[in-house]
Amino acid sequence: MTETMAKGMIQLPILDTLLAELQKVKGELEAIRQKIDPHQELFDLKEACVLKGISYGSLSNQKYKYLQPNGGVPDIISCGRSRWRWETIQKWVTQSDEDLAKAAVIEK
Predict the structure, then answer these.
(1) Which pTM value belongs to this model?
(2) How many H helices and E strands in the chain?
(3) What is the CB neighbour count within 10 angstroms for residue 49?
(4) I want to staple 92 with a disulfide (CB 3.0 to 4.6 A). Which of 10, 59, 69, 103 is the partner?
(5) Nearest Cα to 80, choosing from 50, 44, 51, 55?
(6) Is 72 helix (H, G, I), strand (E, B) or coil?
(7) Exposed (0-12), middle (13-18) or buried (19+): which is 57, by Cβ within 10 Å?
(8) Which residues contact 66 (CB under 8 A, 6 or more apart)?
């Protein structure tokens, strides 16, 4: 068996693990999506917090804006409120606070 084949065989379990994790996350997102109006495309911060299962008060403070969807940058402002698209919320729900903090540091 060549070294390349051995490396390929080692990577397959890793890919299987990643695939299983992605399928789990997809299932969680679908469960979240079923809790809301299927035709809703824009979400304000309160709705986004409910979907992520966190306190609105903890993210409404400007100090923690980097923890909001898209680093606190809304996809659109509608009726004077920041709103994010479902695609943005999907990505945000799966990110940990640590991932969001790292992304905020990288962007600065």
Answers:
(1) 0.65
(2) 5, 3
(3) 19
(4) 69
(5) 44
(6) helix
(7) exposed
(8) 72, 100, 101, 103, 104
Residue labelled with tokens 């068996």 = 1
Name residue, tokens 């495309």: 41
* pLDDT tens-digit series, residues 47-101: 999 888 888 998 888 888 989 999 999 999 999 999 999 999 989 988 888 888 8
Residues near 34 by beta carbon (within 8 Å), at least 6 away in sequence: none
SS3 83: strand
Tokens of 53: 């299962």
- Is residue 60 within 8 Å of 49, Cβ to Cβ? no
Q: Which residues contact 6 (CB under 8 A, 6 or more apart)?
A: none
The H-or-E segment that residue 42 falls in is strand 42-43
